[in-house]
Specification:
The structure holds 3 protein chains of 3 kinds. Chain A has helices at 6-15, 20-38, 46-61, 104-111, 154-161, 178-184, 218-228, 246-252, 273-288, 304-319, 340-351, 354-367, 373-396, 419-423, 430-435, 466-483; strands spanning 41-44, 73-77, 115-120, 167-171, 187-190, 211-215, 259-263, 292-296, 399-403, 438-446, 453-460. Chain A is α/β, with parallel strands linked by helices. An 11-stranded mixed sheet of chain A has the order 1-3-2-4-6-5-10-11-9-7-8, with helices on both faces. The radius of gyration of chain A is 21 Å and the shape is globular. By secondary structure, chain C is α+β, with helices and mostly antiparallel strands. Chain C is built from 16 helices and 15 strands. Chain C has helices at 5-11, 62-74, 185-203, 243-262, 308-316, 322-333, 337-345, 349-357, 362-380, 391-402, 408-419, 425-432, 440-453, 455-462, 469-479, 486-496, and strands spanning 12-23, 60-61, 78-79, 86-89, 99-102, 109-120, 123-138, 142-146, 158-162, 169-175, 215-225, 235-240, 270-274, 281-286, 296-297. In chain C, the strands form 3 sheets. A 9-stranded mixed sheet of chain C has the order 3-6-7-10-1-11-12-13-14. In chain C, strands 5-4-15 form a 3-stranded antiparallel sheet, with no helix packed on it. The longest helix of chain C is centred in the middle third of the chain and has 20 residues, at 243-262. Classes of the chains: A alpha/beta, B alpha+beta, C alpha+beta.
Chain lengths: 498, 98, 502
């Protein structure tokens, strides 16, 4: 039953064919069977999950009206605060910290009676594209355990690909939901910025961060999207408008007459051959489904990566200042005669990993007196230019598309010593965060040269998220027809297969 | 070509309150030479006539009413404290001036 | 070399800069819904936001914006059509985020002024102090330093942090540089802070109690040779907790700077702390290497663009400027300058006005509040406002005296009774049975009785020796248990004895 879609599981729950407890237990068993190899999870809340599941079953037995995904289990990226449950953000500096409050996303999950199985692994404080920056060891791609599952949300995507959970929550600042989805053959969506509350999402880059739904199908992602999205008065940057009708769009999948814009700059030599081949095929399928393919240009996109690696580190250098050993988290060096300052300095040295420290220093520099205009200030101007590029492009097309990332999953350790090479993984996903628009990645097939999953990225204008789901559903259906079975069926069988 | 010396990085580490080893400082200084070169590209298009974005969305005037909402209990507030005394967070001696 | 103040101002002219922080009296904090009540148990008014727990986000308190705009308008500022919050980044344990949400290059109010008047050798002189900006920020937590000698930070073993205060709204009012005050710099500064305090109080946006920290003043002073153009190096003095301290601190700093300069030394740009006991300042943080705050726009908050109509509504609702009100009341009540100053110094203007508005005579109101009631407050060592007696009570008492139902002496008893909590004046009168014996019949009976008992004295009066009446009047008062109106007794007695007082 763990190989079903969330929507099918939900239907079975409603029909009384299974209980949430049984469903949850099945997933807990699966996690036990495979997670030693995959290492998607940092914390498994066995007791809590089963208790939640039992509560939902009881409600259902009473005949209470429940939300569409009630009783379905989910994996939560460890960057989201969940009350009483360890929340580490993949860092040593928060080892053992249990928040005294729930993030709004978790509150919404609980309101919808979705069962939270546990917290998933991630690059430390969401900084990375491979989950190798986790202080707790990397996660392994279920397609090939020697390879990365993407990052920063590799744990969530791996959990989906390994059938440890049918649903997951990720967060995306420069591609951290979409790129892992691409390299694990799953679906990941970054909603319009402000569409999902950031209250309780441990901040990396405040003007770019966004939580989003991860799943194995477009419809599952849509259902989860509607469960977590919406205005939150506790988040001053959240949008006060109705949640886009993404479920209806996912169920429709009718793209006839839609204009699909291929972004010229997000393709080309830097992209692996197999990635480009699957992209072209997907375009053909969409054309066959009645969409019109047009070419658009976004000349400022080539500066997006540079701007991102100024804005994100700048904001994070400030956001991470709170980790100072005074009120929570790790404290080292508190010996006789030590000062608060020395304890702070030592704790941050020991508690933060290399990539985090690198970005904090870079951000401190970019904001510092005398350099602000040249670096942070200029980067924010590039952001305006990128937004203008998107606005112009969306005049010509209803959605924009590109390959999600330039390569398939690389080997663990392959790019760990080359920060710039690592940063290039996000080259196609970053522009989306810069403009605050919506972005989705869904599987478009396997690359011929290595048999590894490739992702297709769909981008929609601000608060028009339903367009991504419309096009995504259409493509997914066409691909399913072509393949005859879900792509994940081709993934290596793990843990004795159930 | 922009570059940072080991001492430049040391100053930044001081501002960021991170006690870095000498080797770390040297390594970072080297890395930054490459990184700064790459990110400095933003200056190519950041003309004076371009406005800076600090928010992706044109929201304005988001407020909350001046109403008291229940706080955390002191136990919850102090639950993560590395050290506490008399319902307060206990921290080592502060050298800086207040 | 110790210089006298006169020597200092003979050679140098001071340039001032004043930064005043005001704690707003909103119910909840600047960015979260925690209560702002003073004196609560430690860490009982905190939440993920003001504790800076991972994941928490700020949301702006609407009332704080309103209060800040009111302050700006009252200080003749322009209200910025577009303003933004910014992060001021630095590390300190009492500041949970290790950045303060403040405002940087886009504050909410700019370019205002405050006019003050001080007494100079040439008579009253006006000074206009220009206000550069008014902006919003948040207060820090409170630290308790344990283990050191005096509870101060030096030599402390460790510190205990209470974050109840963290996040309370603060408004910062910054003046432009203030040249041209000459030897009156200390008085001008004091007058400015006093006027600011009165304006803020009249707006009702803060308790403005310097002793409690809801109004804080940092004074910047620099000296230059008289006639010179270039500004001298300035020092900033913090911990100035009263109006008197503002004056003393500036005077002290002027002397200190002058002594340094005269000796060929250099004034160091630094933060200094004012010491109440000595009136001198102590060196604190050196500002030579100004901390790099790396300001950038706060990404978790969106810009503030106050609606023009809203601003005009606030402007129309502004209360009368305190200095104008004082002049108006002085004229209306015909109060001599000295008495007016006494009322202002004793801070009874509001309470007297309230009494007058309820119909009482201004002079009588003033006499009661400044006189008897203030005396009682002093004896009990409490503030006037904390006594149980209200303007309505005083107005009622004045009315009763006017109506002849109380004498001044009896009225004092009623005042005592009201303050003791025995009820409203009419209730006290009833409970204590205080009654002016007005009944002529009863009075005449007493008068006749006394005249019979003191026949000799009565005769003296009959024969024209009026002063002798005093003893008789006293006896009648005693006879009526002090409840007669002495003046009436005198009149009736004299008439009875065939005399009158023309």
């Amino acid at each position: 039953m763990i190989r079903n879609n969330a929507a099918d599981m939900a239907a079975k729950l409603v029909a009384g064919e299974i209980t949430s407890v049984a469903l949850t237990q099945a997933h807990l068993d699966r996690i036990e069977a495979v997670d030693t190899d995959v290492h998607a999870f940092l914390h498994i809340d066995t007791e809590g999950a089963l208790a939640q599941a039992a509560a939902v079953d009881a409600k259902r037995a009473k005949g209470e009206k429940l939300s569409p995904l009630a009783g379905v289990p989910l994996a939560l990226k460890d960057v989201m605060a969940q009350k009483g449950i360890p929340t580490t953000c993949g860092s040593k500096i928060l080892e053992g910290w249990r928040p005294p409050y729930d993030s709004t996303v978790v509150a919404n999950l609980k309101k919808n009676d979705i069962v939270i199985l546990g917290k998933t692994n991630m690059d430390e404080f969401a900084m990375g594209s491979s989950t190798e920056n986790s202080a707790y060891g990397p996660t392994h791609n279920p397609w090939d355990l020697t390879r990365i599952p993407g990052g920063s949300g590799g744990g969530s995507s791996a959990a989906l690909a390994a059938f440890e959970a049918p649903l997951a929550i990720g967060t995306d600042t420069g591609g951290s939901i979409r790129q892992p989805a691409a390299v694990t053959g799953t679906v990941g969506v970054k909603p319009t910025y402000g569409g999902v509350s950031r209250y309780g999402l441990v901040a990396f880059s405040s003007s770019l961060d966004q939580a989003g739904p991860c799943a194995r199908t477009v419809l599952d992602a849509a259902l989860l999207h509607e469960a977590i999205a919406g205005h939150d008065p506790k988040d001053a940057t959240s949008i006060n408008a109705p949640v886009p009708q993404v479920v209806a769009a996912a169920k429709s999948g009718d793209v006839r007459g839609m204009k699909i814009g291929v972004v010229k700059e997000l393709n080309g030599d830097g992209y692996q051959a197999g990635v480009r081949a699957r992209f072209e095929e997907s375009l053909e399928l969409l054309a066959k489904a009645g969409a019109e393919i047009v070419e658009v240009s976004a000349p400022n996109f080539e500066y997006a990566l540079a701007a991102y690696y100024l804005i994100a580190p700048s904001e994070c250098s400030s956001n991470l200042a709170r980790f100072d050993a005074m009120r929570y988290g790790l404290r080292v060096g508190d010996v006789d005669g030590a000062s608060a300052e020395s304890v702070m300095n030592l704790t941050r040295e020991v508690g933060f990993g290399k990539e985090v420290k690198r970005r904090i220093i870079l951000g401190t520099y970019a904001l510092s007196s005398g350099y602000y205009d040249a670096y942070y200030g200029s980067a924010q101007k590039v952001r305006t230019l990128i937004t203008q590029d998107f606005t112009r492009a969306f005049e010509k097309a209803d959605v924009l598309v590109s390959p999600t990332c330039p390569t398939t999953a690389f080997k663990i350790g392959e790019k760990a010593n080359d920060p710039l090479a690592m940063y290039l993984n996000d080259i196609a996903t970053i522009p989306v965060n810069m403009a605050g628009i919506g972005g989705m990645s869904l599987p478009s097939g396997l690359a011929d040269e290595d048999g590894l999953p490739v992702g297709f990225q769909i981008m929609s204008p601000v608060m028009k998220d339903e367009r991504m789901y419309l096009v995504g559903a259409a493509l997914e259906a066409a691909l399913l027809s072509k393949w005859g079975a879900p792509l994940l069926d081709k993934a290596p069988v793990m843990g004795g297969g159930r | 070509m922009s570059s940072l010396s080991r001492d430049d990085v040391a100053k930044l580490a001081g501002l960021a309150r991170i006690e870095m080893s000498d080797q770390e400082l040297v390594d970072l200084a080297n890395e930054f030479t490459v990184i700064l070169d790459a990110v400095a590209r933003v200056q190519e298009v950041a003309g004076a006539d371009v406005e800076a974005t600090s928010h992706p969305l044109p929201l304005r005037n988001i407020f909350r009413p001046d109403v008291v909402v229940p706080s955390l209990t002191p136990e919850e507030a102090l639950s993560g404290a590395p050290a506490q005394e008399e319902q307060r967070f206990r921290v080592p001696q502060i050298l800086g001036e207040e | 070399m110790t210089l006298s103040y006169d020597e200092v101002v003979a050679k140098y002219e001071p340039v001032l800069g004043l930064e005043v922080h005001v704690e707003l009296n909103t119910n909840s904090k600047m960015f979260c819904g925690c209560s702002t009540i003073f004196g609560a148990e430690p860490n009982t008014q905190t939440c993920p936001v003001c504790l800076a727990l991972p994941g928490a986000l700020p949301v702006v308190n609407e009332k704080a914006i309103e209060s800040t705009i009111k302050i700006g308008l009252a200080l003749n500022c322009s209200i910025a059509p577009f303003s933004r919050f910014a992060r001021k980044n630095y590390f300190y344990p009492d500041m949970p985020k290790n950045f303060q949400i403040s405002q940087y290059d886009e504050p909410i109010c700019v370019d205002g002024y405050v006019d003050v008047e001080i007494e100079t050798d040439e008579g009253p002189k006006k000074f206009r102090i220009e206000v550069e900006r008014v902006h919003m920020e948040e207060d820090t937590g409170k630290s308790l330093h344990v283990g050191g000698a005096t509870g101060r930070i030096h030599g402390a073993e460790y510190s205990l942090l209470d974050y109840n205060r963290a996040g309370i709204p603060l408004v910062e009012i910054v003046t432009k540089i203030v040249p041209g005050t000459g030897k009156y710099a200390p008085e001008v500064a004091k007058a400015y802070v006093a006027e600011l305090r009165d304006i803020l109080r009249s707006l009702g946006v803060s308790d403005v109690k310097m002793e409690q920290g809801s109004l804080r003043c940092d004074a910047n002073v620099s000296l230059r040779l008289i006639g010179a153009e270039k500004l001298g190096t300035r020092s900033e003095t913090k911990n100035v907790n009263s109006l008197r301290s503002v004056e003393r601190a500036i005077r002290g700093e002027m002397i200190r700077h002058a002594e340094l300069l005269n000796a060929g030394g250099r004034v160091v740009q630094e933060t200094r702390h004012f010491q109440e006991d000595t009136g001198l300042t102590r060196s604190g943080r050196s500002k030579e290497q100004a901390e790099d705050y790396r300001y950038f726009p706060e990404p978790d908050l969106v810009p503030v663009a106050p609606d023009a109509a809203w601003i005009e509504t606030l402007r129309a609702a502004l209360p009368e400027r305190p200095s104008i009100r004082r002049k108006r009341l002085q004229e209306a009540w015909a109060v001599p300058d000295k008495e007016m100053a006494a009322m202002i110094n004793a801070d009874v203007l509001d309470i007297v006005e309230a009494t007058v508005l309820l119909g009482a005579d201004p002079t009588k109101s003033r006499t009661w509040w400044l006189g008897e009631i203030s005396r009682i407050a002093n004896d009990k060592d409490v503030a006037l406002a904390d006594l149980a007696i209200t303007p309505a009570d005083v107005a009622e008492i004045v009315a009763l005296v006017n109506a002849g139902e109380l004498t001044d002496k009896l009225a004092r008893q009623v005042v005592e009774g009201v303050i003791a909590g025995e009820g409203k004046p009419s209730e006290v009168v009833a409970k204590r049975g205080i009654k002016v014996v007005n009944d002529d019949g009863a009075l005449m009976a007493a008068i006749e009785k006394v005249c019979a008992e003191q026949a000799e004295t009565a005769d003296k009066v009959r024969n024209g020796h009026l002063p002798a009446a005093g003893a008789l009047i006293g006896a009648v008062m005693k006879e009526t248990k002090g409840q007669a109106d002495a003046a009436k007794v005198r009149a009736l007695l004299l008439t009875h004895l065939g005399q009158s007082e023309g």
